Amino acid sequence: MSIRFAADIGGTFTDVVLDDNGLVHSKKLLTTYDDPANAVISGLDQLMAEASLKAKDIELVLHGTTLATNALIERSGAKTALLTTEGHRDVLEMAFENRFEQYDVDIDRRPPLIDRSFRIGVRQRHASDGEEIIPLDQEQLVSSVRWLSEQGVASYAVGYLHSYANPSHELSTLEIIKDLVPEASVSLSSTVCPEIREYERLSTTSANAYIKPLMEEYLESLELQLRSRGVTCPLLLMTSGGGLTTLDTAKIYPIRLVESGPAGGAILAEQLSKELNEPSLVSFDMGGTTAKICLIDQGSANHSRSFEVDRAYRFKKGSGLPLRIPVIEMVEIGAGGGSMSRVDPMKRIQVGPQSAGSDPGPVCYGRGGEESTVSDADAVMGKLYPKFFAGGDLTLDVDAAKFAIEEQIGIPLGLDVFAAANSVAEVVDENMAAAAKAHSSEWGKSMDARALVAFGGAAPLHAANLAKKLKISRLYIPQGAGVGSALGFLLAPARFEVVRSFFSPLATLNVDTVMSLIEEMRDEATGVVSQMSSGPLEEKVRAYIRYQGQGHEVSVLIDQVELVDADYLRERFESAYRETYGRVLEEVEAEILSWTLSLEGAAQREEWFEFTKSNSVVEAQIGESNVYMSDAELKTPVLWREALVEGEEYFGPLLITENQTTTVVPKDSSVSISQQGVLRITLGLRS
After folding, report:
1. Do 499 and 576 lie in a common domain?
2. Sheet of strand 495-505, all strands in order from the earlier edge strand to the far edge
């Protein structure tokens, strides 16, 4: 048990949680765009005062953020250059040389992060085995770097052909850049993504370089403000793979922080899967800017070595920016409480991905927002209870929301204000359902027999309707749902993964070389994880193997490293291949492309949290609200969550409110509260 502080910065809200030896204090604050660290520090001050603690009492700070993701989506990173092998500067533009939607003649990818004029071909070349073919032309490189510096380039991505096999030219380039432009930020593909596959390696390295100056500046500001407050404990960052890493590592590889906030939510869902004895879940996290959907099977989320940011075309695979980093597999779309709604020229309601954010925010926040949003629609429909909205920190302006919805949605479509608001909610819920179905289909999964767990400030408002669209009848809302991702940080283990490409046919495998490679990866991972965890570490080694002639490989877990040889690897590969595809290919040679090694410390805690309660004792029913649901306005009791009695069953329609969110329970549904304080809603699937 210890005193820990966790903060999750989103596009609209910053969630902060203080774990005082198992007792949780929490707060939601509007994100401060001028310096996101300001909201974190403000939340820390408020929670320390509430818990009567001092800064020196805090033993660990945990942090996750969507700043990296937002910078990639909004194209707000640094002016970046790419130095690559001569003749290969257009790799980022050519991508996979395919069409992700074959029958749409109007499809187009978003332009690369780096403009073509800043993508420079450098005379040099290594062969695939690392042998030097053309020496690095240092004179040309110096001239190029000087010109790029004059153009205001602040960050450099360096990605030479086959540098994963021989990084010497990239290391020489780093020295030259630092000699000419000492203040420049540099990312090398041989350290960011030392893997075969040129496009993904360059895409990942370019993205790392693009966000690196921004993230370095932010992380340094956060560290400085924490230290100035008297917080001297370690600061750990959440990664997209669901583990914690050090501040220094995060500054070098900020690309690993992409999806760090949503990863915390997935870890929370994993824990709930075990607590609730629900092995198959749909994790639904909806905040102010985005919605994230993740599948949990046998108590664990799906993990991957690659994913796409900003799928710009109907969640279609191939329409986003590919990154090769360890990641918890999920789908994220621009559908949050602050997502703007509008009527397009074809008289269709469009919702998102643009968001009102926290400044000015939705119209109902009363902070100068003018564009109608999902939260405005929820307010108009009576789903937000004004007295306890945002813990009383914001005054809900329902009249302003009605005006915006009526003017921008209702009048153009000939709908009354309630029907217009309901239409906005239906569109955003359909978008999320479509994303969930596409995600499950892509991974060969089914929605059958799953339950849905919802968290995030906006998710409990929309969870019941989303569950109905997915034909799900069991719905769970955990205690502290409004700050769910930050709670997940408190459950996350220290973890770091290292990857190396090492191509070899199984028939000619050099076992000594493989063992040396594994030892090298183990040393690198230990150097990171040992700074965070002093206990025993769990090691996982995987080989990525395919049949000759195939374009993709299968992940093979090596459960006994000391037994590794060609026969052992073939047996493990065929078992994994048969499990995936139902058969093996006889008399076809197999080959290894890459290896990964991850080290993981013990989870920070196994028990569920205890949450602080309001000082005043209240009755379960604190009021009534006229709520527009099921195409009718219903007089709906409003219940205070903390006053619900464990084991008692309550029947919808209901609003169950708390300081950071509100849960909508539709009619023909019932709700009870578990020993862990989790709301269990049983839905009637009738519309």
Report:
1. yes
2. 495-505, 590-600, 538-547, 554-558
pLDDT at 657: 92
> Of 181, 215, 249, which residue constitutes the final position of a domain?
215
Q: Within this chain, do residues 652 and 593 fall inside the same structural domain, yes or no?
A: no
pLDDT of residue 441: 84
Determine the Cα angle at 469 with ends 468 and 473, to 5°. Answer: 30
User: What is residue 455's three-state secondary structure?
Assistant: strand
Question: What pLDDT, on the 0 to 100 scale, is given for residue 259?
Answer: 85
User: Distance between CA atoms of 356 and 339, rounded to whole angstroms?
Assistant: 6
Contact 238, 444 (CB under 8 A): no
pLDDT band of 73, cuts 50, 70, 90? confident
Q: Mark whether 576 and 634 lie in a shared domain.
A: no
How many other C-beta atoms lie within 10 A of the C-beta of residue 458? 28
Least confident of 77-81, 96-100, 336-340, 571-575: 96-100
| One domain for residues 660 and 572 | no
Fill in the amino acid letter for 36.
P
Token readout for 10 is: 């989103």
pLDDT score recorded for residue 230: 93
Residue 462 structure tokens? 């929309």
| pLDDT, tens only, 304-351 | 888 887 766 666 676 778 888 888 988 888 788 999 999 999 999 999
**Phi, then psi, of 431 in degrees rounded to 5:** -60, -45
Tell me the C-alpha distance between 462 and 210, whole Å.
Answer: 35
Three-state secondary structure of 454-467: EECCCHHHHHHHHH
Which of 63, 126, 409 shows the shortest CA–CA distance to 260?
63
- What is the CA angle 428-432-436, rounded to 5? 170
Do 211 and 77 share a structural domain?
A: yes
Spatial separation of the C-alpha atoms in residues 159 and 141, rounded to whole Å? 13
**In-domain check, residue 124:** yes
In this structure, are strands 538-547 and 554-558 parallel, antiparallel, or unpaired?
Answer: antiparallel
DSSP H helices in 111-197: 138-150, 168-180, 189-192
Name the domain count of the chain.
3
- 184: amino acid identity, one letter: A
Distances in Å between the alpha carbon of 556 and those of 23, 115, 360, 545, 582? 41, 38, 49, 7, 16
Q: CB–CB of 255/192 below 8 Å? A: yes
Q: Are 6 and 486 in contact (CB under 8 A)?
A: yes
Structural domain ending residue among the three candidates 553, 569, 600: 600
Measured from the Cβ of residue 594, the count of other Cβ atoms closer than 10 Å reads 22
Confidence bin at 687 (pLDDT 50/70/90) = very low
State which amino acid sits at residue 88. Answer: H
Q: Which two tokens stand for residue 100?
A: 């992700």
* CA contacts within 13 A on the Cβ side of 123: 9
Structure tokens at 483: 């700050």
Phi, psi dihedrals of residue 160, rounded to the nearest 5°:
-95, 155
How crowded is residue 640: how many other Cβ atoms within 10 Å of its Cβ?
19
- Between helix 168-180 and helix 138-150 the angle, nearest 10°, is 50
Whether residue 617 has pLDDT greater than 80: no
pLDDT, mean of residues 50-78:
89
What is the domain range of residue 543? 495-600
